[in-house]
Design a protein that fits this description.
Chains A, B: Belongs to the FAD-binding oxidoreductase/transferase type 4 family. Chains A, B: Keywords: FAD, Flavoprotein, Metal-binding, Mitochondrion, Oxidoreductase, Transit peptide, Zinc. Chains A, B: It is found in: Mitochondrion. The structure is a homodimer of 571-residue chains. The first copy, chain A, is α+β, with helices and mostly antiparallel strands and 571 residues long. The first copy, chain A, has three domains: 142 residues, Alpha-Beta Plaits, CATH 3.30.70; 145 residues, 2-Layer Sandwich (Uridine Diphospho-n-acetylenolpyruvylglucosamine Reductase, domain 2), CATH 3.30.43; 116 residues, Uridine Diphospho-n-acetylenolpyruvylglucosamine Reductase, domain 3 (2-Layer Sandwich). Chain A has 19 helices and 19 strands. In chain A, the strands form four sheets. Chain A has an eight-stranded antiparallel sheet with strand order 1-16-13-15-14-18-19-17, sandwiched between helices. The first copy, chain A, has a five-stranded antiparallel sheet with strand order 8-9-12-10-11. Chain A has a four-stranded mixed sheet with strand order 4-5-7-6, sandwiched between helices. Chains A and B meet through helix 9, strand 11, helix 11, helix 13 and helix 19 of A and helix 9, strand 10, helix 11, helix 13 and helix 19 of B.
Chain lengths: 571, 571
């Protein structure tokens, strides 16, 4: 029988007596409250004023797990131009440089001062910088023109003009991407979708939402919530990211375990090709077997073959009952056992199964001055969420599951949230890790798909590597503070973070390409959910064969023969 | 309070007393039994001996809902060559005719007598006819060579040779398609996948199955069942159809409501392009954001850009508890109300919501000499299935739902299956319709996606049309016996059947293209789940814009510039 230790006073403890689980708590939510309470909605909005200093990038190429809620509490560091950080990148001389005539054309086309940020005919450096620099403060382009169309027709005319005149284009949604895909590298024109932000329709019966690409994810979810539905995607940046960008990057996030990927949920799509062609595939049908499913190429296409201007998406019924449990475990073997049991016993109500190692939770506590929900130290922690239609049934299932995993000593200790605030506190232990990892100077981040049985070995091997090469230690003499592992257990998606006191080329060299080789040997993916962007373009060969890359290039050339769309990135 | 009428003696009735639902029955299934009992598995196997007679096609171009269990009990009719039924189709003269040297090459390549059916150097008419004629007995090609490769490498060499020599190819799985896509039109070489039938791997934890394209759907599901999982697709032809063909046609079926489409469930795919290139995209990862998701083009590509040779697919946890209820309703408005309530109250456990009109059920009873589960007549019937992890919880949810819909008089009468045999009887009322519709001489079948509120109006308008044009009546003077409507309510997928005593061009003219125009006006789809094949190729313009068709042709030309893959079909 596992010993019961102290628990966070605000949370009722899981207690085991005679192998019977008692006092498992549950929250009861009204459907409307559930909308807000199912997870804390982070209001991440890029503060462009912060992006105007100049220095080394603060983060590695691979991006963060999820965009944290706010900038870490440390001195703002300057962002170098990407062209200076990556001197091997050269501007493609086939692209024309912007002239006053071009700007005049766009101003007439868009017909509104607020639709154009013009750094060609006047000084607009500060205004432009918010669109040039990325959220991670690592990439910074030199764009001198931002266009904000308000209709698909305007997007079409913009692209046609750019294509005819060999002007490079950088499509941009909420600019919350983590691989440098959403900001220009040189002087590409930024086409920002923010003004295309209308919900076009919502069908109460089918749950099908049709909306412009520029609708903020949180707003889309709120809209669905008003009708008792849920947007089938959820991620930390939901307060800023746009649904068009989500689709263009095939965002994964926290609901994928339950609701599946965007390739299944997106029913229709409207996009504009470089030559101005409007791809009118905005179906609101669940089934439509009439020809190749071309829209799929735009899902995860990262704006390299066209700009997504609207989507039609299936929103599932919103669950009135949401429960969250958090527990400590002795080993990764036990994490896997717990996951298998959760899948079996919680089955249709399981909506998240997240894993965090002990180091990740200690780091979170240290960075935030927070107290963890469980006292005592555990090598591993898991957070599970259930969502269902019946509070009593869900609680009973959850209790039976917890009883089993504690009785079998799979889980050492645990708590269950009893109200919305506790639910949010438990989620914060998982979602706060990404921000915490950047808190002490810098972090190299990797977002990887790895077969489940081998998933955690990578963290252990990375740790051994830094222990043996003398780069990791407790004092300031060592660049690496710690190596942490966490992620979406339900999707075999590991976030490996090398937490640093400072950026150091030796650290980077010790990890790359070793980490990609390690993943490739196990037939994993070097980018589970963040995409390729600029950061991972060089490494696609570790996850895709030459044949596949060749076939992808063929598609790129088919749709964008001039190569104007999001150049220097992707494949 | 709705009156309670007689019920099928073998089934316990739903009774309402004081607005309280009593005696709702439930079935309890062990996980292993659930595998077999979740639905009757129809063992449909094409009997080629039956296909050798010659006559008019017995069915219309649009195919059946699901392939029925066996041929109707009526005289076998002859099947005309497609080339004779459709004299406007001409053999493409660019394609070379087969020579003895070609056959010699293939025999050496495949190295086995059983791998080649050679009608070029000898008489093999009877053997070939099973591969030339389709299940619907409507289409019949004139192929003289069938190749049965046993490896992806052999498929690659076959296609490369065909492409180099301008030999047309007809990929073929289980040949259970309903739109003439799986049989040749002229002398295309049939490449049949039946010998590639190995399960390559199954991961217990993730539920990911990797298997050759030629694995029979039923076998794939049985394999998943052994490990407590379920194949995420189910359809009447599961005893014959192959998973490669299912993916190539993007089959929909009965589990789509719950588990979503193949675009979301297929994680990886191996295919061979016409030039012999092996598309090695057989990922077993739930998340992999590294480049364009090219495999999606093969899902629903109907063998026109390559041959699917293997798939990797996510199989959900199998539900130990399965319940089926069947009820009568007064109007289509009430069917919609019942569906909304089922979505809300049964939510995560709802696995099917099927609608049948009164005429469809009467036809089923008449054709099968069967007694319907509910006595008395109802204008509409619904079948709902729940699948979940906890029998008690599911029954409670179902009872609460039934109590509500009966108390509110949404539903007039109903029964719940209490054991496996009852469950199968109830499913038979839905699944037996397709076969019944062909029982009385002929049937024109349409498989349509229509927005839910308007879905049933089409049936009513079609009925009015035949009533007013004098083609429908009770005596043998009228070619049309009845018009019936049924289908997957949960997917807005209507099967409209014009039940005939005989085929009559006047009937066809009264329906086509009117039905396609009607659907197009409501932004529906002229093929929800059956695909295009030969039958619907001329009508794609009703569901897709010229731009979309143009973009599709571009993809076809990219992958199959010589046009050798499944010619005369699709787009």
């Amino acid at each position: 029988m596992p010993a019961i230790h102290r628990a966070l006073p605000a949370l009722r403890r899981i207690r085991i007596a005679n192998a019977t689980f008692q006092q498992a708590s549950r929250i009861r939510l009204q459907p409307s409250a559930a909308a807000a309470a199912s997870r804390p909605a982070y209001q991440l909005r890029y503060q462009h004023a912060e992006a105007q200093t100049e220095a080394e990038p603060t983060t590695s190429a691979s991006g963060a797990d999820h965009a944290p809620q706010e900038q870490p509490d440390r001195p703002q560091q300057k962002i170098k131009f990407t062209a200076d950080s990556y001197p091997s990148l050269k501007r493609d001389s086939r692209f024309k440089e912007l002239t006053e005539d071009d700007v005049k054309y766009f101003k007439e086309l868009l017909g509104s001062e607020s639709a154009v940020i013009d750094g060609v005919t006047k000084d607009a450096f500060e205004e432009l910088d918010a669109f040039n620099a990325d959220w991670m403060r690592k990439y910074r382009g030199q764009c001198r023109l931002v266009l904000k169309p308000e209709s698909t027709e305007q997007v079409s005319k913009i692209l046609k003009y750019c294509n005819d005149n060999m002007l490079a284009v950088n499509p941009q949604g909420g600019n919350t991407g983590l691989v440098g895909g959403s900001v220009p590298v040189f002087d590409e024109i930024v086409v920002n979708l923010a003004r295309m932000n209308n919900v076009r329709s919502f069908d109460e019966v089918s749950g099908i939402l049709v909306a412009d690409a520029g609708v903020i994810l949180q707003q889309a979810d709120d809209h669905a919530a008003q009708h008792g539905h849920i947007f089938p995607l959820d991620l930390g940046a939901k307060g800023s990211c746009q649904i068009g960008g989500n689709v263009a990057t095939n965002a994964g996030g926290l609901r994928l375990l339950r609701y599946g990927s965007l390739h299944g949920n997106v029913l229709g799509l409207e996009a504009v090709l470089p030559d101005g062609t409007i791809v009118d595939d905005l179906s609101t049908l669940r089934k439509n077997n009439t020809g190749y499913d071309l829209k799929q190429l735009f899902i995860g296409g990262e704006g390299t073959i066209g700009i997504v201007t609207a989507i039609s998406i299936l929103c599932p019924q919103r669950s009135p009952a949401v429960n969250v449990a958090y527990f400590g475990l002795e080993s990764y073997e036990k994490v896997q056992q717990a996951f298998r049991e959760a899948k079996k016993q919680l089955s249709e109500i399981l909506s998240a199964f997240e894993m965090m190692d002990g180091q990740a939770q200690k780091l979170y506590a240290k960075a935030n001055g927070a107290r963890l929900p469980l006292e005592g130290e555990h090598p591993f922690y898991c957070l599970i969420e259930t969502s269902g239609s019946n509070t009593d049934h869900d609680s009973e299932k959850l209790n039976t599951f917890l009883e089993h995993v504690m009785g079998e000593e799979i889980v050492s200790d645990g708590v269950v949230a009893q109200d919305e605030s506790q639910l949010q506190s438990l989620w914060a232990c998982r979602e706060g890790i990404s921000e915490s990892s950047q808190h002490f100077g810098g972090v190299y981040k990797y977002d990887l798909s790895i077969p489940l049985p081998q998933l955690y070995s990578l963290v252990e091997e990375a740790r051994s590597r830094f222990e043996s090469n003398g780069l990791m230690g407790d004092s300031d003499d060592f660049p690496v503070m710690d190596v942490i592992g966490y992620g979406h257990m339900g999707d075999s998606n590991l976030h490996l973070n090398v937490v640093c006191r400072r950026y150091d080329k030796e650290v980077e060299k010790a990890v790359e390409p070793w980490v990609y080789e390690w993943v490739a040997e196990r037939k994993g993916s070097i980018s589970a959910e963040h995409g390729l962007g600029l950061a991972k373009k060089p490494f696609i060969g570790y996850s895709r064969s030459e044949t596949m890359v060749k076939l992808m290039r063929q598609v790129k050339e088919l749709y964008d023969p001039n190569g104007i769309m999001n150049p220097y990135k992707y494949i």
